[in-house]
Amino acid sequence: MQRISVLIALIFYGITCYAQQIANMEGRRFEYPALGWHGNIEFGANFTKIENSIAQLTNRFVLIHHNKNRNILISNDLNFVSVNNQNIMNSAFQHIRYIQFGDSVVFPEAFVQTQYNKQLALNLRLLSGAGLRFRIYRDEKSFFYVGNVLMFEHEEYPDLPSQNDIRMSSYASIDISEWDYLPITFIAYLQPKLTDINDYRVSLEANLLFKSTKKFIFKTQARYVYDAFPPPGINPVFSGLTNTLVYTF
Question: What architecture is domain 2-248?
């Protein structure tokens, strides 16, 4: 029983730990928003006690303000796991993004982001970037976008000097919603360091959504992450499968 409890905690730890290596903002956009404020909230909480007591808490919210000229997107993530009242996981990030609209198929955007992750020994990561988003295809139910963003990255780790880098973040996002109750999304990121192309991160993600009502959605997510230069003691490759209940308003 003890081994099972620890395994559950480690699985949850790995999924949330690597999920923050590359923050996927494509899955947080609203492709067809109405005017004004909109958003969604994801919340997960579990508590088990056999030989060990394990508490798990996850929370994500996304807010977007839309008008005909631009979108402002605000997102926040929080992840927490404790075993026998000892905190083994603590991570979070905040993201604000500005997206300008127009009649063309090219959209300027800019963002800032803060992040920390205890398990990655990441005391602080600050990101600030801007770039262009290109619409390849869009109809009333499906779309395909690609984008390129140039970003400044500041990182702080314990007992190490802080690092300042410039990275390119390229992405592709496909949403297939031909079946209203069962949309599918595919998202890929590539983030190389400009001064050393051998230092790069890759993220591949697929999401399957089950829309039982207009307000509640059950999401299954598969993800693969590779970091060519991860923090010491962290595996460069990770894959995971998660299930989440989403409330949309």
Answer: Beta Barrel (2.40)
